[in-house]
Amino acid sequence: QVQLVDSGGGLVQAGGSLRLSCAASGRTFSSYVMGWFRQAPGKEREFVAAISWRGRSTDYLDSVKGRFTISRDNAKNTVYLQMNSLKPEDTAVYYCAATRGYSGRNWPKAYDYWGQGTQVTVSS
User: Fold this and answer.
1) Within 10 Å of residue 71's Cβ, how many Cβ atoms?
2) Apex CA 53: angle with CA 118 and CA 112, to 5°?
3) 25-78 pLDDT, tens per residue?
4) Of the candidates 1, 5, 24, 14, which has an alpha carbon nearest to the alpha carbon of residue 90?
5) In terms of Cα–Cα distance, which of 121, 122, 37, 19 is closest to 78?
6) Spatial CA neighbour of 44 closest among 100, 109, 103
7) Is residue 89 pLDDT above 90, yes or no?
8) DSSP secondary structure of the chain
9) Of 71, 67, 23, 29, whose CA–CA distance to 50 is shortest?
10) CB distance 83 to 61 below 8 Å
């Protein structure tokens, strides 16, 4: 019902910024909580950020608080992840995802739909 396409990754130096985007093709985008996850080589998929249906609530991984900002534009069916002050340890494939409930925002298995992933590489 929802198809997600994420984009915006790239190679940046430590301290730099990237803005990831995730475009949804479904008709019920505003009915979904949106999240961002990441997976680094040799590591499990990790919750990064989530945003509630209308953007009134957000949640972040502790290590990205103050550096990353999740936002959404329901009129454009798009969710964003603004990443500032990037560190080498932020290097990972980043995935956007959609779930119907905010309570499961930190749990990958709660998400119904996933983007294809976009690579973020931060050099030191």
Assistant:
1) 15
2) 55
3) 978 999 999 999 999 999 999 999 999 999 999 999 999 999 999 999 999 999
4) 14
5) 19
6) 109
7) yes
8) ---EEEE--EEEETT--EEEEEEE-SS-GGGSEEEEEEE-TTS--EEEEEE-TTSS-EEE-GGGTTTEEEEEEGGGTEEEEEE-S--GGG-EEEEEEEES-GGGTT-GGG--EE---EEEEEE-
9) 71
10) no
Nearest to 115 by CA among 93, 97, 101, 99: 97
Pairwise CA distance, residues 106 & 102, whole Å: 9
What one-letter code names the amino acid at 116?
Q
Band of pLDDT at residue 1, cut at 50, 70 and 90: confident
Residue range 11-29: average pLDDT?
Answer: 95
In the sheet that holds 78-83, the strands lie side by side as 4-7, 18-24, 78-83, 68-73
Query: Cα(65)–Cα(59) distance, rounded to whole angstroms?
Result: 9
